[in-house]
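Researcher: Structure for this, please.
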Amino acid sequence: MASAFLDIFKTELQHFNLGEEQLLKLSEYCLNLEQWNRKTDLIAPCSREELVERHIKDSVLALELVLTNLKPVPGPWLDVGSGAGLPGLVWAICLPNSSFQLIEPRMKRVLFLNEMRRKLSLENLRVAESRFETFHVEHPASLVCCRALGSRIDFLKASRERVASEGLVVELLGSGLDLEGLTKENQACGFEEPSILPYSSSKLLASSGNSADNGRSLLISRLAA
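Model: Predicted structure, token format:
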């Protein structure tokens, strides 16, 4: 039952400013993700506690960092290769007044995302069955994010054509990043040197630079002037 996840959330997410309705929707989302994952490969098999720690809490922590760096720029938030809705669907639950577009090329995942949009009454969320490189934006995005990269160069090139001039391109990555190599890729695609903001699912890491070996990194890129 969704109440099982709700009990976990009330412990693991107690320090975040989330209301009862948001916690209920996150719980319902996790329950459905667990059920769908038995027949559709959405995420790697894991316990309920691991699902919350690796996926939900990770997404909420990353969102906190994003909000401290994002200027109030009009336009939707794009989640590229959204898969199971991580982080975009979680962010849409947390920010009901912002507009989100989940972009996913695989039909089974699109079916799941649309089902969650319907079940959770997420009026601020749209789902597109598309590759990012061919996705048409009606308005420049205030933020483009990706949690699972294929080609980073292709992602940056497509993002450059779709993000607002003062918007952000955000990547949720692991630890031990090569800032020099990432900077060269950014410059080749028309972006400034990226910022690496380390964090972990247990606490935010105060230092900047490369993250701890067992931590996570939020990579933030801005268009070059």
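Researcher: Any notable elements?
Model: Strands lie at 77-80, 100-104, 125-129, 141-146, 163-173, 195-199, 216-221. Residues 48-69 form the longest helix (22 residues).
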